[in-house]
Design brief:
Layout: E1 6-18, E2 25-37, E3 41-45, H1 52-60, E4 67-72, E5 75-76, H2 80-83, E6 86-89, H3 101-111, H4 116-129, H5 135-138, H6 147-158, E7 165-169, H7 177-192, E8 196-200, H8 204-210, E9 213-218, E10 221-227, H9 228-231, E11 236-242, H10 246-256, E12 260-264, E13 267-273, H11 276-288, E14 292-299, H12 303-311, E15 326-327, E16 330-331, H13 360-364
Parallel strand pairs: 3-8, 3-9, 6-7, 7-8
Antiparallel strand pairs: 1-2, 1-4, 4-5, 9-10, 11-13, 11-14, 12-13, 15-16
Length: 365
Amino acid sequence: MPDMADAIVIKKLTKQYPIPRKTEFVNAVDNLDLTVGRGEIFGFLGANGAGKTTTIKILLGLIYPTQGDADVLGQPAGDLEIKRRIAYLPESPYFYEHMTAIEVVTFYAQLFGMKTEDAKKKAEELIDFVGLGGKGDRGKRIQDFSKGMRQRVGIAQTLINDPDLLFYDEPTSGLDAIARRDIRDLMLELKRQGKSMFLSSHQLEDVEAVCHRVSIIHKGKLQVLGTVEELLAGELVEVTLSGVTPGLGESIQQVAGDAQIEVNGTRTSVLMKNTPEAIGRLIDVARKAEANIVSIEPKRRTLEDLFVRVVGGKIDETGAVTAPVATNGTNGTGAASFDTPVPVAPLTTATPKASANKYKDLARK
C-alpha cells in the first residue's frame, strides 16, 4: 500500500505499442519510477514524444500499462472513486462557444450531479476565483475570449469537484507574459489550499517559478529528478576584469579552457566553470598583468539550460547520453535510444491489482 503522504506513486511503469504489420514494439514509457508528494506542484518535462502524454493517460485511467504499477491518491490509477477526486486540464480545452464562462462552468457542475442553484453558485465562486468575475467579462461569450481567458475557464472547470490532485497540460502555452503570470499565481494559490499538481509544460520559466521538484524524461526514460534548487545550483562563475590587454586575453583563454569571454567597452567578462583551481589560475594571470578584478559572481543555470543539456545531448552507440545529468541526486545512466524502431520482445504483463473499475481487466487485453 503506497504511503498516504504521496499523491502519485509510479513503479517500473512501462507502456509498449506494437508497430503495425511488424513484430516490433516501441516503449513509449520505459521502466519509469516516480513519486509525487501531497500538496506538491511537480514538473513533468520532456520533449515532444518523450512519453509525457502516455504517462498522464495512464495516471488518469484512460489507458493501462503493459507492465508496472501506477497509484493515484492511494489507489490504482483508473479507480472510479479516485476519478471523483482528480481533474485534468488539456492544452487546448474545448468549450461551447455560444456560452458565457458562468454558463459553461454551471453546465459542467450539473454534469457532476449538482442541483441548478448549487451549480450556479459554485460557478459564480469559481469564475470570481480565476479572475473572470468582472462586469466586462461576465456577459462575454467564449467565442470572444482570448486564449488566456479560456485557460482561466478551464482552471475553473477543473475545480468544480474540489479535487485533491490536478493534472495540468501546458496551462500557460501561447499566453502573453501577463496572462502567464496570472496563471502561475492561480497555481500557487491552489498549492496554498493544499492541492497537489502534476504539471506538464514546455514553458520552463513557469515550471521553474512554481514547482518544488521537477523531472525530465527522454525517450520514455527518467533522466532527471530533484528539487529545482538542487538541479539549478551554480556550476559557473562570471569573473569581470578591467584593463585587459590583447596579450592577457590570450592568456585568459589558455587558463580558462572553454570559457565564454565577452568584451564590453573597458571591461571583459569571463564565464567559466566554478572550480577553485580554475578561478585561482585566472586571478594569478590577471594580477601579473596588472588587470583589475571588478567582480566574481556565481551564476545559477536555468531550467532551460538543464533541459537542453539532457534532451539535446548526443546519444552514443550504446544509447547513453554523453552529457552527465543528475538523476535522483546522482549522475544518470543515460537514456535508451528509440529514434528508430528496434525489435523488443513484448513484456509479460503481471496480474493487475484489484480495482473498482470493472472494465480495467478488459482494457488490458
